[in-house]
Amino acid sequence: MKPAPFVHHAPGTVEEAVAVLAEVGHDGKVLAGGQSLIPLLNMRLASPAHLVDINRVAGLDAVEVTPQHVRVGALVRHAALERSEEAYAALPILRQAVANVAHPSIRNRGTTVGSIAHADAAGEMPAVLALTEGVVEVVGPDGAHEIPCADFFLGPLETCLAPEELVVGVRFGRLPAGTGTAFTESARRHGDYAVAGVGVALTVSDGIVSDARASFVSVTAVPSVLDLGAALRGVEPGSEAWRRGLDAAAEVVHAYVDPEDDIHASAEYRRMLAAELTRRVLPLAVQVGEHSTAATTTSSGHFPSTSPHAETSSGHLGATGPQGDGAQLKQSAHSTGGDGSEREREREREGQVAGEVTVTVNGIRHTASVPARRLLSDFLRHDLQLTGTHVGCEHGVCGACTVLVDGRPMRSCLMFAVTAQGHEITTVEGLCSAPDARVAPTGESMNPVQQAFAECHGLQCGFCTPGFLTTITAYLDENPQPTSAQAREAISGNLCRCTGYQNIVKSVLRAAELRTERAAERAAEPAPATTGESA
């Protein structure tokens, strides 16, 4: 399960990216996070001849909050949006929804805008964009323009975006004062694609409901919004009429959604589930609304709508695209090189022309020549001989290949080696040289997580263990004293076929104890003596 050969382009500006897209047309795909695209490439469900990697384009990684909207740039990772306190205060449903997007290792790499541009009916963020009447910001050869969410999605995995156009950001509309939001979904495993999901926005004015809307995941062909006002408008939350209104709202949803049968659930089960989730999530929206301090109202008191001709607020791009002077495209990393001959291009497509990548792995700087389609997992295992990183599913589900990229866990099977350029990577081998590592009775150095796995029998065959070790090490950096429930959620993105997870949970808790003990030891150590005189 490896991607077909392609030419990798790494433009440095939006204009360069658009120019490449205009040249390659339907043969090109944009690569940002790649957590939806690369699984398709690995399974050969998509085989573009060109990938336009925008990760080196400056100015696309900002979250901006104004009284009218929350703007998210094309390179904002899900995890960054989830951590943004300003965005959460302005529009709580962003965090409510993004917390349901896959697993932390996916959110650390995947982008919110990329998820929206992918237009998967099972995606959470397209549903939120619809619920907030958002706008998609696009740059093409003719300049910048905006597309209202209602016009952007045409069908499953289909948008109105032209091949030569690049999505540079999206704007989620702020909701009226007194509006509470909530989001919930049901999946076979936490973080998996939802069998059904519902996001709601409920406005309460003077103690009664004035507006209620819902959007859905996995039960409609395109993101859409259902007005629940007929069932709930004029009702006081908590009253007997409220309970009847919830039943009525559930019936409206049951009649509205149009799911399909698949291997995970029947259409009727999804329909029933969407209705029941709506019934359960609406009271949560009331609670959020009661505690909201950052809502913004429009003059009409209704949900804000954004004109497709509204002025862009980013200020980064202006309205100019490529200059159109007829000059040759600037060559970028791994783009067609040499003399531009057809033979050279064909060799690139066949993966015979390698590109150079420089990356720091476990503290050691490496420079290597690799094909553009070489997965990071394969680069680590075959080029660097770091075979502790294991390869399982190669579409981001099992977690065996998880490594730390700049300290955060990511799936190495969902990254290309060329996209790791300039980053610092830690594999399971690198955990042994951590500052809190100690020499075990076996004579080998182990960090606290490794030692805890050995003490608590958290491994059997060991195939999945490297991914668990890197995932847990990073998790304990952020949450040094987890509960048992939190430990279970932390490891939910990693599959193990042997242990039943009980001892892995014990290992997480024991690792937390060991880290605390070793931190205390280091704090108690005397400071090193200094000699000599100061100048």
UniProtKB/TrEMBL annotation:
<dbReference type="InterPro" id="IPR016167">
    <property type="entry name" value="FAD-bd_PCMH_sub1"/>
</dbReference>
<dbReference type="InterPro" id="IPR001041">
    <property type="entry name" value="2Fe-2S_ferredoxin-type"/>
</dbReference>
<dbReference type="InterPro" id="IPR016169">
    <property type="entry name" value="FAD-bd_PCMH_sub2"/>
</dbReference>
<dbReference type="InterPro" id="IPR051312">
    <property type="entry name" value="Diverse_Substr_Oxidored"/>
</dbReference>
<dbReference type="InterPro" id="IPR036884">
    <property type="entry name" value="2Fe-2S-bd_dom_sf"/>
</dbReference>
<feature type="compositionally biased region" description="Basic and acidic residues">
    <location>
        <begin position="340"/>
        <end position="351"/>
    </location>
</feature>
<dbReference type="InterPro" id="IPR036010">
    <property type="entry name" value="2Fe-2S_ferredoxin-like_sf"/>
</dbReference>
<feature type="region of interest" description="Disordered">
    <location>
        <begin position="292"/>
        <end position="354"/>
    </location>
</feature>
<feature type="compositionally biased region" description="Polar residues">
    <location>
        <begin position="301"/>
        <end position="315"/>
    </location>
</feature>
<feature type="domain" description="FAD-binding PCMH-type">
    <location>
        <begin position="1"/>
        <end position="177"/>
    </location>
</feature>
<dbReference type="InterPro" id="IPR006058">
    <property type="entry name" value="2Fe2S_fd_BS"/>
</dbReference>
<keyword id="KW-0285">Flavoprotein</keyword>
<keyword id="KW-0560">Oxidoreductase</keyword>
<dbReference type="InterPro" id="IPR036683">
    <property type="entry name" value="CO_DH_flav_C_dom_sf"/>
</dbReference>
<dbReference type="InterPro" id="IPR012675">
    <property type="entry name" value="Beta-grasp_dom_sf"/>
</dbReference>
<keyword id="KW-0274">FAD</keyword>
<dbReference type="InterPro" id="IPR005107">
    <property type="entry name" value="CO_DH_flav_C"/>
</dbReference>
<dbReference type="Pfam" id="PF00941">
    <property type="entry name" value="FAD_binding_5"/>
</dbReference>
<dbReference type="InterPro" id="IPR016166">
    <property type="entry name" value="FAD-bd_PCMH"/>
</dbReference>
<dbReference type="InterPro" id="IPR002888">
    <property type="entry name" value="2Fe-2S-bd"/>
</dbReference>
<protein>
    <submittedName>
        <fullName>Uncharacterized protein</fullName>
    </submittedName>
</protein>
<dbReference type="Pfam" id="PF01799">
    <property type="entry name" value="Fer2_2"/>
</dbReference>
<dbReference type="InterPro" id="IPR002346">
    <property type="entry name" value="Mopterin_DH_FAD-bd"/>
</dbReference>
<keyword id="KW-0408">Iron</keyword>
<keyword id="KW-0479">Metal-binding</keyword>
<dbReference type="InterPro" id="IPR036318">
    <property type="entry name" value="FAD-bd_PCMH-like_sf"/>
</dbReference>
<feature type="domain" description="2Fe-2S ferredoxin-type">
    <location>
        <begin position="355"/>
        <end position="431"/>
    </location>
</feature>
<dbReference type="Pfam" id="PF03450">
    <property type="entry name" value="CO_deh_flav_C"/>
</dbReference>
<dbReference type="Pfam" id="PF00111">
    <property type="entry name" value="Fer2"/>
</dbReference>
